[in-house]
Each structure stands twice: as structure tokens, then as C-alpha cells.
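Before a colleague's protein record goes any further, I have to sign it off. My question to you is simply how this chain folds and whether the C-alpha cells agree. I do not need a full report, just your reasoning and any doubts. This is what I was given:
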Amino acid sequence: MKFKFSAIAILLEVIFIILFGLFVDYGIEINSLYPYFKDVHVMIFIGFGFLMTFLKKYGFSSVGINMLIAAFGLQWGTLMQGFLHATQGGKFSVSIKSMINADFSTATALISFGAILGKTNPVQMLILTFLEITVFAINEHLVTEIFQATDTGASMTIHAFGAYFGLAVTLILYRPGLKNKHKNEESTYHSDIFAMIGTLFLWLFWPSFNSAIAAEDDKTKTIINTYYALAACAVVTFAFSSLLDQRGKFSMVLIQNATLAGGVAVGTCADLKIYPFVAMCIGSLAGIISVLGFHFLTPVLASKLRIQDTCGVHNLHGLPGILGGIAGIVVTAIQPETKNGVQLTASKQAAALSSTIGIALLGGALTGAILKLPIWGQVSNQNCFDDSAY
């Protein structure tokens, strides 16, 4: 671990520095975007990092490896998106908008990290981040440039993609020894409090996440739709959490995760003229789907399909991401709109959703096969969900 991780990390960083020197220049500054960048940056490093601290003996690794993935991924994300949009001569410029998009790239890897949390080592996470951001950038280019679909809040391209990529990886890395619940795969009172810090940061800043790269005329609309979708989702999540418990109590797992599903689901059509009451319906439905997923679907995935989803990313990002994609299809079918001179259609939205899920599953399966190679070193079943090794 000592030499393998250090050698790979330093080698990749040197490569990044060389590539930045050869291809990257300053772009046109859009200073009005800096507040959005700060909010998104907080979500990436604090929101995602603390959301995953619920495991009683994996808090250091949850926050620490989250920071490693984010710092590594935002550099590769900048390069990948730059290469796909490079001007003549191969050079490309970076700006505040580029930095926001780089953080978005990183979010996909952090979502996938949640699916395999506690079962991989830092070397494997570097490899996963490198490969996933590469596939993500290609898929995003396909969705936005080839299909010309709308996905401003990235319900499909970030959330659904990251979730199903991670699920495919965890399927390939399936551990029969973890079929029965591991003694460390549980939370404590204090670890759940730390996880709620992540939830609250994500919940508060999600309107910025969805509106960061929206057109200037659509930003207010996007913020309003996300704001009310989140509020409705939170109330419905509490209601269904109590409803499904035999004693009528609230579940911290649901409060930490399902309350955020509304922000995920409304992302695709948040910049469209759907009106707040529709956004609230989408948010409420997302909360219900997420709660039911945690309660009924997660045990089935683990026992029947060999998908061990540590953080339940399928319920927070996968299912609400698909709901967001479907909402985009329905809204564009009922009320056609034109964005940047492009006519939005239900068929374009459907193609974007289908390709995203397919590419995520295929890319995740191939990445899982690479991570399974003995060269990277596997964490023993006994040491899973315990960060003392690192």
C-alpha cells in the first residue's frame, strides 16, 4: 500500500501537470458564477464527504478518501471536458464555468464511491475515478451535443450515471463473505449526527447545484423549482418514514438520504416552465420512491442480485435520477420548448436517459473487472468498513 498508492498518485499528478502545461490556458471570466461555484464546491467536499460518515468505524476514510477523489477528479474532469471541446491546435481555456463542470465530473465518482464504500482501497478509488470521469465526459458529450437533450441539473448524466456505474462496479466486486451483515456495517448515534451535517449542506445548496450552469434567464426559475421540490420531498420523506416503521418512528437513514431525492429528480426539467406545484409533485414522488427503495428494494438487491450498495445510492441517485429523466420526457412531450435554438423533444430525452443507463452499466462493469485484478490489492472481508488500515 505504502509504495503502490504513492507511486500511482504521484505519477498521475505529474501527468496532469504536464497536460495542463501543454493544453490549458485562461478563459473568459464570468464572475457572476463564482457564488454558484462556491456552493457546488461545498457540496462536493463537505456535503458528500460527511454524508458518508454514518459507518461507525469508517468516518476518517469517508471524509478523507472523498477529499482525495474530489481533488484528483476535478483535475482530470477539467482535462477530459477540455479535450472534448478543444479549439484548433488542441488548446482549451478554463474559467469559473469549467471549474463548476469539473466539480460535476467529480460528483459522479463520489456517488459511485458510496456504492462500494468500505470495500475498496485508495488505489482502487484512484483508478475508478480516472476511468469513470473518462466515461462520464463521453456520455455527457453524447447527451448534450449529439442527442441535444436538456439535463441542466444532471438528473441523468450525473446522478443516474454515477449510481448505476457504482452498482455495476459493486456487482463485479461482489463479496460472498459480506452476505451476512458485517459487524462494522452499522452506525452509532454520533456517526449519524455527522452524516446529517452532509445532508444539511447538500439540501441547502442543491438549488445552486441545479442552477449553476443554467442559462442566465432560467436561473431564478431553476432555483425556485429546486427549492420547492426539496421542501416537499423532505416533508413526504418524514411522513413515509414514520408510516413504514412498526412503532411510527423516524429512520435516520431515510432522513439523511431520501430528503435529498427531490433535488435529484427535479434536475432535468428544473429550468423548464413547469411551475412550482409540478416541481413539488416531482419532489414528493421522489421522496416516496426513495423511501420505498431503501425499505424494500435494497434488501432484494443484496440477497437476490448480489448488489451490495453500502450507502443506498440506488435509492438517492439512481431511482430519482430515472424519475428525473422520465419527468423530462413527459414535460417536453406535453409542452415543447426551445433552448439555445434547439427544439427539445421527448425522443431526445428518452435517448439521453437510455444511453446514460446503458453506458453507465457497461462502463461500471468494465471498471469493476479492472479493479478486481489482484495487482491493486483487495481489502479482506474482515477489514471492510474499518479505516484503521489506512
In short: Residues 275-304 form the longest helix (30 residues). The mean pLDDT is 94.
